[in-house]
Amino acid sequence: MAGAQPQLDVAIIGGGVVGLIMAMGLMKRGIRVVIYEQSREFREIGAGIAFTANAIKCMSLLDPAIVAAVDAVATPNGEDADKPNDYVRFHDGYRWDPADAADTEDKLLGLLHTGYKGFQGCHRAHLLDELVKSIPPSAVAFCKRFVGHTDPGPGEKLVLQFADGTTAQADAVIGCDGIKSKVRQVLLGADSPASYPHFSHKVAYRALVPMAAAEAALGTFKARNQHMHTGPGAHLLHFPVAGGTLLNVVAFVADAEPWPLTDAHAQRNMTADATRGDLEAVFAGWCPTVRHVVALLPDMLSKWALFDTHDHPAPTYVCQRVCVAGDAAHASSPHHGGGAGIGVEDALALCTLLEMATGAAAAASQADMTALVERAFAVYDVVRRPRSQWLVASSREVCDIYEWSYPPTMADWDKCMAEITARSHRLWYFDIDGMLAELRAGFDGEASPNPSPTLVQIQVQPLVQIQVQP
């Protein structure tokens, strides 16, 4: 019927944090969604996850319920949740004087202001549990491992195939199936190196420590405020999560050796067993604070190989009515703490474009809807790919800055803080309104209001306060 709002059926492959946020944003706009998750239930691996104020703003534009979910489980930095300490602290974890028995505090190198509650930490599983509350059972299909699809052509729905032999139909497919994305493999081809993540030659040792034990060993301030301890070839980060009941600890270590894989393409074996003794050997001779943190960790640990898409970035995120978003498109190492936030930006872009597609198709045929979805995905690719791939590259480089090996800065912390500040601002103060305007202009076929540099533009903000000690 002319003028009736057309129905658009979207399949989301993967039920992680970004997949659920994508689904909530689409459902808020009246778009029908089914999440196809290969596991028997929603689950998240890893421990801590953090969102900047910029990501929270994107969430509010997608669906205020997403912000409510984050608020329910987020732990602001600092001792008082109502008066958060909105700074990232950088400390020299390596250089100290062993002859000075009183010198147990690693030196403060700089402070980076994040804005009010600008970097709140969450436990991944807790956040997932909150988001799931907004997903109706009818919008989820479990035990569905995507293996491919066929496209019958304009006016027809895509046919999705799953490993159990079943099929489903949808007008559009969004792959949110993470770093090992099958959708990306289907989109780019099984023989393309861009279809698979690659080892970044960094490993991460992760653990959650009870806050009572952390406070006893480190003191209240250290335990309840985010700290980054830097040094040659490694760095250690910790921040509170789970309402301040746990301390999330991540130690990053360079690893020049190839990572052993059970399958060169599947790359499923991204973890290995490790011990606290392994880390104690890495941080032997570092300052007492770092060694105290390491001593809090359990005897047995998991060592996570950090894979990303830096070496072989995807040449496109879309193929007609199929696209990838979040880690499935641009898996990043975690050193900027921005991978999930960039995925939220992807979700806002796709939800905005698909809402425009349904509006434009209000009096159109199903064949026209097919073309509108393809146009929406093409605009998404043009607008989102430069910024998200910049993050992947910058995340590797900022790790080198933390570990005193980035050639322009090395261990000169005036230069390091200037570089970290510029990169962080480019990530945190992204021009969301500019992105939305560019999406609308691209979809409407108009000249971009701001050519390609806008894709990574930032809003001018007051200079951060930086304190540097000799």
From TrEMBL:
Say yes or no: keyword Transmembrane helix present: yes
Q: Which residues cross the membrane?
A: 6-26
Q: Which UniProt keywords apply?
A: FAD, Flavoprotein, Membrane, Oxidoreductase, Transmembrane, Transmembrane helix
Name the domain of life this protein comes from: Eukaryota
- Per UniProt, residues of the FAD-binding domain are 8-362
GO MF annotations, alphabetized: FAD binding; oxidoreductase activity
- Please state the span of the N-terminal signal peptide per the UniProt entry: none
Q: Is Oxidoreductase found in the keyword set?
A: yes
Similarity comment: Belongs to the paxM FAD-dependent monooxygenase family.
PANTHER family in UniProt: FAD-BINDING DOMAIN-CONTAINING PROTEIN-RELATED (PTHR46720:SF3), HYDROXYLASE, PUTATIVE (AFU_ORTHOLOGUE AFUA_3G01460)-RELATED (PTHR46720)
Designated name of the protein:
FAD-binding domain-containing protein
* Organism of origin: Lasiosphaeria miniovina
